[in-house]
Amino acid sequence: RDAEGQAYFDKVMADDSRIEPRDWMPPAYRKTLLRQISQHAHSEIIGMQPEANWISRAPSLKRKAILMAKVQDEAGHGLYLYSAAETLGQPRDQMMQDLMDGKAKYSSIFNYPARTWADMGAIGWMVDGAAIANQVPLCRASFGPYGRAMVRVCKEESFHQRQGFEILLELSHGTPEQKQMAQDAVNRWYAPALMMFGPPDDDSPNSKQSMAWNIKRFSNDELRNRFVGMMMEQVKVLELTLPDKDIRFNEDTKKWEHGPLDWDEFHEVLAGRGPCNAQRLERRREAHHNGTWVREAAAAYAEKQSRKQAE
Ligand code: 3HC
């Protein structure tokens, strides 16, 4: 059965087509997908927190409504991704418990504080922008449920990025204090956003296998550099600057290059010692506890429905 399955799997990889949940797959393929998709789902859920803090302090009803819609979208992205991960055999409760117990990774970016309203603009433009750069290739991931989830996620992310860009544009064309607030936010979120793409290629243990299995389509550095190029064009329209004097377009390699990033900081954040790691997990545990009654009510309702159907 395994020999037949392996042959089928190898052909699917060679044809660059899709593996579906019921197909045979190498245990290591299943394991790396569970790893990546569950971490991706956790990122979406934890990612709701920095922005949720600003919903009650939004400067207008329009901004409040847009931010609420964005935060709700992130919850939905988390649910699509937990569902995709569950098709690989791990129950959602287990994934969520691992997150609350501090045993699961989520994107480093969400361990930084959102200090001002302009951070809502910088997060939308830079963090969701980086997410789009990373997630568009994932629409072609070889695992069906993951690739399909990404299509819907990417459509909603482009709204997230555009609303962030618009916040920065408005502030940048506002009073000098507002323009400075926007520039400060861009300065604070630039390096952490670049680190979202993962460690440098020569320090990325999963990349080789992930690319061989058509999960990762481009390397961490390749996407990071592409994203720098995208921001360089858009930051001119914002009349702001990126806090990196080493950014340049290399005419020989035809690639964008940027200044050094603090990978010690990155590893500190991944080790749970970032600026907001503790509070993000504390808030997650509190939200999970506060939601117990919802889960119990939904389970009781489902039980009643299935009893009715059985009658
Ligand atoms: N934050 C936390 N952990 C990270 C990380 C980051 N920014 N970048 C890398 N890591 C971890 C990896 O998970 C891996 O650890 P593990 O083996 O225990 O999982 C280790 O560092 C080495 O990194 P690799 O490059 O070898 O790992 P990958 O091949 O998995 O590449 C990745 C990392 C590019 C983040 C890849 O996992 C990926 O594309 N994930 C899906 C996209 C994603 O998770 N995006 C997060 C943001 S979600 C979001 O932004 C929401 C939006 O709405 C704002």
Q: How is this fold's topology laid out?
A:
Elements: H1 2-14, H2 27-46, H3 48-55, H4 61-86, H5 92-100, H6 118-138, H7 144-172, H8 176-195, H9 207-212, H10 220-238, E1 248-250, E2 255-257, H11 263-270, H12 277-290, H13 292-310
Antiparallel strand pairs: 1-2
Helix pairs in contact: 2-4, 3-4, 4-7, 6-7, 6-8, 6-10
The structure holds 3-hydroxybutanoyl-coenzyme A (3HC).
Residues 35-36, 39-40, 43-44, 47, 74, 77, 105, 107-108, 127-128, 131, 134, 157, 195-199, 204-207, 210, 216, 220, 270 line the site of 3-hydroxybutanoyl-coenzyme A (3HC).
Can you describe what's shown?
This protein has 311 residues and is an all-alpha fold. It has helices spanning 2-14, 27-46, 48-55, 61-86, 92-100, 118-138, 144-172, 176-195, 207-212, 220-238, 263-270, 277-290, 292-310; strands at 248-250, 255-257. It has a two-stranded antiparallel ribbon with strand order 1-2. It is globular and about 65 Å long. The site of 3-hydroxybutanoyl-coenzyme A (3HC) has 30 residues, from helix 2, helix 4, helix 6 and helix 9. Residues 35-36, 39-40, 43-44, 47, 74, 77, 105, 107-108, 127-128, 131, 134, 157, 195-199, 204-207, 210, 216, 220, 270 line the site of 3-hydroxybutanoyl-coenzyme A.
Q: Could you say which overall geometry the principal axes of the C-alpha atoms support?
A: globular
Order of helices and strands: HHHHHHHHHHEEHHH
Evaluate the radius of gyration.
Answer: 21 Å
- Give the assembly state of these chains: single chain
What level of helicity do the residues show?
A: 55-70%
Which stretches are low in confidence, meaning pLDDT under 50 for 5 or more residues running?
A: none
Number of helices: 13
Bound compounds: 3-hydroxybutanoyl-coenzyme A
Q: First CA to last CA: what distance?
A: 41 Å
How many beta strands in the DSSP annotation? Answer: 2
Q: Strand order within the widest sheet?
A: 1-2
Largest sheet: 2 strands, antiparallel
- Structural class call reads mainly alpha
Which band does the percent of strand residues land in? Answer: under 5%
Write down the overall mean pLDDT: 97
Enzyme class: oxidoreductase
EC number: 1.14.13.149
Protein name: Ring-1,2-phenylacetyl-CoA epoxidase subunit PaaA
InterPro entries: Aromatic_CoA_ox/epox (IPR052703), Ferritin-like (IPR012347), Ferritin-like_SF (IPR009078), PaaA (IPR011881), PaaA_PaaC (IPR007814)
